[in-house]
Amino acid sequence: MNDPPRHSVSVAAAIVDDNGRMLAIQRRDNGHWEPPGGVLEHGETIDECLHREVLEETGLNVEPERLTGIYQNMTRDVIALVYSCRITSGTIRTTEESQDFAWLTTEQITDRMDEAFAVRLIDAHRDPALGPATRVHDGVELRA
């Protein structure tokens, strides 16, 4: 009997400042720029994971406001949920998981990030009436 495929679930935060720029972190493990977030642990709720991962990577506490996108990595079997979040407390800083952070414009996001991660922040700017975006990618590029 074959076991059914299993997927990992991750969450990420799309955090916008007063000037419309979005927060990105540069990961220590691979140097890539991404929205803050990470993998849901066993027994952890989505909100708990979002709070934990953002705090671990940025020093910020956030409150999720709405789901902005669902992203499926076909290569690694990861489903990522991205939420628009507002900062509730904390001071932004680098951490054991992040070597840098930046508030980026849409142009800077597309310059620094792989397409599969840039679109997560760009989609957060979509009209909320459209609902969450749903996209499929290979870990780097979107699939048509």
In summary, what is this structure?
By secondary structure, the protein is of the alpha/beta class. The protein contains 3 helices and 8 strands.
Structure description:
The chain has 144 residues and is α/β, with parallel strands linked by helices. The chain has one domain: Nucleoside Triphosphate Pyrophosphohydrolase, CATH 3.90.79.10. Helices cover 20% and strands 40% of the residues. It contains three helices and eight strands, in the order ββββαβββααβ. The protein has a five-stranded mixed β-sheet with strand order 4-1-6-5-8, with helices on both faces. A three-stranded antiparallel β-sheet has the order 3-2-7, covered by helices on one side. Helix 2 runs antiparallel to helix 3. The protein is globular, with a radius of gyration of 15 Å.
